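[agent] plan:
  1. take the single chain provided in the ticket
  2. run structure prediction with default settings
  3. attach structure tokens to the ticket
  4. add a short note for the reviewer (M.T.)
[agent] executing step 1
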Amino acid sequence: MSFRDVLAEDQRLVLLRALAEVPGNTLNESIAKTALAHFGHRAPSDVVRAHLDFLDRHGLLRIERIEAARGELWVATLTVAGLDVANGNATHPGVARRMAV
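[agent] step 2 finished; step 3 output follows
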């Protein structure tokens, strides 16, 4: 596995964990980007969207696309399967495994 793959998997886990911590388990893409930066991942908007899309396609979250004045805004909501991965109760290919603390 390449270092790039390791980073991508960790970024996806960070996104799931951030969603698990907020009320309603929902974040918009801007806050998702901020959450990644908070945990040491500076990712451009297209990378954040690529991760959200991956997690959506794998059933770990659902994306609502909202038309806004400056284009489309993505809002992600965690699924039960995504919560299990975020909490370390399940694993999923392409997402880092949460380490026990």
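[agent] step 4 note for reviewer: The chain has four helices and three strands.
[agent] ticket updated
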